[in-house]
Amino acid sequence: MKVEIMDTTLRDGEQTMGISFSPAEKETIAKFLLEEVRVDRIEVASARVSFGEAEAVKRITRWAGEKGCLDKVEILAFIDGTASIDWIADAGGRVANLLTKGSLRHVREQLRKEPQEHLDDIRRAIAYARSKEMQVNLYLEDWSNGMIHSRDYVFFLMDGLKDEKIGRFMLPDTLGILNPEQTADFCRIMLDRYPGLHFDFHAHNDYDLAAGNVFMAVREGIHGVHTTVNGLGERAGNVPLASVAVILNDHLHAENHLNEKKLIQVSKIVETFSGIRIPPNKPVVGENVFTQTCGVHADGDSKNKLYYNDLLPERFGRNRQYALGKTSGKANILKNLEELGIELDPESARKVTEKVIELGDKKEQITKEDLPYILADVLNNFSSEKPVRILNYSLTLSRGLKPIANISVEIHGKTYNESATGDGQYNAFMNALWKIYDSLGKKHPVLTDYVVTIPPGGKTDALVSTTITWKIGNYEFKTHGLEVDQTESAIKATEKMLNIIENVKTEKKK
Predict the structure, then answer these.
(1) Mind listing the pLDDT tens digit for each residue in 455-509?
(2) Residue extents of the structural domains in the chain
(3) Are 496 and 481 in contact, with CB atoms under 8 Å apart?
(4) Which residue in 259, 260, 249 sits closest to 1, CA to CA?
(5) How far is CA 28 from each of CA 39, 197, 224, 275, 324, rounded to the nearest angstrom?
């Protein structure tokens, strides 16, 4: 069974409150979805929205035309005479997804028309699109309510359109009201009554049932599913692309073209462009979903992988991790020390475990990179000296001028001074720091993520926690800083990073 995936991140996903992708961002996401993730189709815009939307569509259709995949780029059109179709044609589009009314209530109360009038309008729109040599798919908006409250109307519309030149009939659960039993029942009815037609299912997540509804729709034989990256969309969003991918592969064994190893990457791209962070517990793509916290689980994993499931992190280009905190056992500690190349005797492992639990009880954030410092504190057999110390820094911020940083850093007992400008105070600080490192021929990591956390309530004297993710070669790690000022918090996290890259290798297997 082959299932088509149509991703609508750039259309329905962009309806998430506060999101507006630029033309360049839309083009980047479109290319990545089609070329790297290998979705079958993408829906990139709604007709007649804005000048910027038209420019974005033109960029995408120009590229798609050059690549020979213009038929995979779809645009939402409205039943508005010829206006939407002309807009799509002017933007270079060749596939129109006509938005029609899938419930009687929408026809009568929103359009103020009778079913036959709406059917006639749809037929005229289809004929005009075909005259422009445009492919047509059809959305039955509010179809789920139509099947619940006005099924005869749904059948009236379908009977009137089944012989038209329509590529796909798309069945939206527009308000996210369906449960899996209803989804299975309604999809089966449509497939049985109209066996020669192609049907897509479009799920929303208002009751947190979107993934389950997709499972049932595909199991009943639906031909295509609509998704968004990270589940973006109005209200509670749409069904997430990554969730659908693993459901198809692991539970339904349904044929599809999706490239699992690119799911994390496209999620990160969309996270960056949208400004909406991926929840750490988001299935498949969340930061913590391949992290074991309980010590019992780490112990079981070391005994023939007892706590593994089919969602192996390697499928998605990721690694399994073992968290450190108050629920950590000795197995968690040993797993992390093993990654650092550090071996401990049983008594030393017990002492370190107790210290980690003690810190976890205080709600301290503990990472693998903290372990050498914990070892130094507990066992006194690791050098507790810091080879790198940030001695002094002066940061200036002036209106109309770039921020300036003057810094003094001690590296292995020798002091270095430097200054630099930047786009912000911390950026200026980092530019000055890397000047020193570059002058010494020292390699330094790249900052890949920067997260600031403050307590709720907006108190100006509250502590600020800054977590920075660094990457050097293939090695990625995090450091934390805590201060009353955000920039100082980031500088503390940076100093910790500098000592890690200087210290950890020398501390291995002492």
Answers:
(1) 554 444 455 778 899 988 877 888 888 777 889 889 988 998 898 888 654 444 4
(2) 4-274, 291-379, 388-507
(3) yes
(4) 249
(5) 14, 33, 24, 16, 37
| Residue 341 in tokens | 């190349």
The angle at the Cα of 91, spanning 89 to 95, to the nearest 5 degrees, equals 55
Q: Could you tell me the two tokens for 186?
A: 């309604």
Strands (E), 47-197: 73-78, 95-101, 135-141, 169-172
Active site residue 141: yes
Tell me the sheet residues that pair with 42: 7, 73
Catalytic residue among 11, 41, 94, 168: 11
Place of tokens 């009038």: 117
- Whether 141 and 100 have beta carbons less than 8 Å apart is answered as yes
Place of tokens 């990270």: 230
Please list, in sequence order, all residues whose beta carbon lies within 8 angstroms of the beta carbon of residue 31, skipping any fewer than 6 positions away.
63
CB 340 within 8 A of CB 368: yes
| Cβ neighbours for 442, distance < 8 A, ≥ 6 positions apart | none
Q: What is the DSSP string of 203-229?
A: -B-TTS-HHHHHHHHHHTT-SEEEEBG
Q: Residue 198 and residue 191: Cα distance in Å, rounded?
A: 9
DSSP conformation letters of 233-275: SSTT-B-BHHHHHHIIIIIS--B----GGGHHHHHHHHHHHH-
Contact 86, 48 (CB under 8 A): no
What topology does CATH give the domain 388-507? Double Stranded RNA Binding Domain (3.30.160)
Residue of 43, 53, 141, 488 marked catalytic = 141
Per-residue pLDDT tens for 35-92? 999 999 999 999 998 888 999 999 999 999 999 999 999 999 999 999 999 999 999 9
C-alpha 456/C-alpha 438 separation (Å) is: 40
When the candidates are 3.50.30.50, 3.30.420.40, 3.20.20.70, 3.40.190.10, the CATH number that belongs to 4-274 is 3.20.20.70
Q: Which of these, 246, 240, 249, 320, lies nearest to 279 by C-alpha position?
A: 240
